[in-house]
Design a protein that fits this description.
This protein is of the alpha/beta class and about 190 residues long. The protein has a single domain, classed as P-loop containing nucleotide triphosphate hydrolases (Rossmann fold, 3-Layer(aba) Sandwich), CATH 3.40.50. The protein contains five helices and eight strands. Strands 1-2-4-5-3-6-7-8 form an eight-stranded mixed β-sheet, with helices on both faces. The chain is globular, with a radius of gyration of 16 Å. The two termini are about 30 Å apart. Bound molecules: guanosine-5'-diphosphate. The site of guanosine-5'-diphosphate has 19 residues, from helix 1.
């Protein structure tokens, strides 16, 4: 486990094994979603740094990364779900780490990133149900909005409205401030 003195807007800890999770977790906003959905890019936008490792290689995030925001909140970047190329053993390890984190009350809110073109992928439905079972409130965020056509946006807007989902583009910055406000509102 890597541990550093908290620096605002930066990485404070990286945990790779369930037994390395702190005994008393400070409740965080957890970021979950399929590999490559744009989680690192969004975190970098929200944190105002390039602390989260953004990469074109799916599955690069293999632990839970804890960040401190400028406002003093804790964000936790969870392993990308559904990375098919990881071995079964590795996937099991990540699942165990995530499970332990949530069961120990690590998250006050889960920001669930989805691809608005595939809103009901089996993995995302699994994530939705898992969070619901654990009683963790979920905020859905549709990513890479800049990539959608007008027709795709119209469909996605309707689906997102039904679940009070947010829309963002880490590339253009669209929706980032609104999301930041919504996260803040949910933490009060
Ligand atoms: P992660 O695996 O979920 O952390 O995803 P990344 O943040 O590493 O993003 C995966 C790929 O999508 C990278 O090539 C990013 O540059 C790209 N990407 C992320 N967010 C956006 C976005 O809002 N718009 C566009 N066009 N590309 C994005």
């Amino acid at each position: 486990m890597l541990k550093k003195e908290p620096t605002r807007g930066g990485l404070i800890a990286a945990v790779h094994r369930p037994q390395d999770l702190p005994e008393r977790l400070r409740p965080a906003v957890a970021f979950v979603g399929r590999s490559n959905v744009g989680k690192s890019s969004l975190l970098n936008r929200l944190l105002g740094t390039r602390a989260a490792r953004s990469s074109k290689t799916p599955g690069k995030t293999r632990g839970i990364y804890f960040y401190e925001t400028n406002e003093g909140h804790q964000f936790a970047d969870l392993p990308g779900t559904g990375f098919a190329r990881a071995s079964r053993e590795e996937r099991g390890g990540w699942a165990e780490l995530g499970q332990r984190f949530f069961c120990d009350g690590g998250a006050v809110l889960a920001v669930h990133l989805i691809d608005p073109r595939v809103p009901d992928s089996p993995i995302d439905l699994e994530t939705r149900d898992g969070l619901s079972d654990l009683g963790v409130p979920r905020l859905v965020v549709a990513t890479k909005w800049d990539r959608l056509s007008a027709a795709q946006r119209a469909v996605a807007r309707r689906q997102l409205a039904a679940i009070h989902g947010e829309i963002i583009s880490a590339k253009t910055g669209e929706g980032i401030e609104t999301l930041r406000r919504e996260i803040r509102r949910r933490l009060i």
